[in-house]
Amino acid sequence: MKKVVLGIDIGGTNTVFGCIDEEGKCLLTGNIPTQKHEDINNYLDELFDNVNSILDKSKEKLEIIGVGIGAPNASYYSGTIENAANLRWKGSIPLVDLVKKRIDVPVSITNDANAAAMGEKVFGAAKKMNNFMVITLGTGLGSGIIVNGDLLYGHDGFAGEVGHMIVRKSGRECGCGRKGCLETYVSATGVKRTVYKLLARHLGDSELRDIPFSKLTAKMVAEAAGRGDLVAKETFSYTAKMLGEVLANVVAVTSPEAIFLFGGLTKAGDILFDPVRETLEKELLSIYRNKIKVLPSGIKDNAAVLGAAALIWNKN
């Protein structure tokens, strides 16, 4: 019987799961809607009904030896999800304890960006690195920081929130309740907000001008920038510059060997990576210059599930 870890990624819309072997191969996968059930127990019942159904149909016999979970506002230490803004279950949810009632194996949980960092270390491009960070650029901005081979959790399990460093005093409103957080500028949502700020400032032609905010995507902006649209190009220049400046400050605290950028926004490619690298190098303290690589993630498929599973495989 082949040993696998059940990796679970709890997203705001869908929950994706997979059985991951020690080599990082995803042998079975499935998904369920996250927000269907108001009661967390009903949600977990549906999740494990799906997991068991897929295991029963598998031609290869698999033994689940652990469960790794990536979820928003998850604490590795307490095993809880704490007041996640984009989940319908409020308060403190003792998810690890609830999962252990359904399967008697080791269970670990952390936030999705920390899971991405551990996935990069166990299965990705950071296998030989002990000091690096992963910046996840999606709807928001997440960060997972590895120091001396271990995830940086802090005393309560919530350390490393680079996306909630304030970069503009009294700036854009953030979902966390504060103003001026980095993720309000450097994220898919932040890119959209920047486009409309620039469109209001400029009177020139732009292929983005007639697209409603609800229809606009960061992918559209990246493609327009690639075609030379001035507003789109300025948007990515502004976004990348701000990210590079903040990363230079984080480097001064953590001194990583590499910074991996991960998520949908990275599909913009060099339009994003080149100005991030240029700004980072310019803003770094001199002792850190020419030492830090800015790289795309080495994990392409099932990244979130692999990262969650890596929480368990890293212990074995």
Kindly summarize this structure in a few lines:
The chain is of the alpha/beta class.
Main attributes?
Nucleotidyltransferase, domain 5; 34% helix; five-stranded mixed β-sheet; single chain; 316 residues; alpha/beta; 13 strands; 2 domains
Structural account:
Strand 10 and strand 11 (150-151) form a beta hairpin. The chain folds into 2 domains: 2-121 and 302-313, ATPase, nucleotide binding domain (Nucleotidyltransferase, domain 5); 129-296, 2-Layer Sandwich (Nucleotidyltransferase, domain 5), CATH 3.30.420.40. Helix 4 (188-201) crosses helix 6. A 5-stranded mixed β-sheet has the order 3-2-1-4-8, with helices on both faces. Strands 11-10-9-12-13 form a 5-stranded mixed β-sheet, with helices on both faces. A 3-stranded antiparallel β-sheet has the order 5-6-7, with no helix packed on it. It has helices at 40-57, 95-100, 112-123, 188-201, 218-226, 230-254, 270-283, 303-313; strands at residues 2-10, 14-20, 26-33, 62-70, 74-75, 80-82, 92-93, 107-110, 132-137, 141-147, 150-151, 258-262, 293-296. The model has no long low-confidence stretch (mean pLDDT 94). With 316 residues, the protein is of the alpha/beta class.
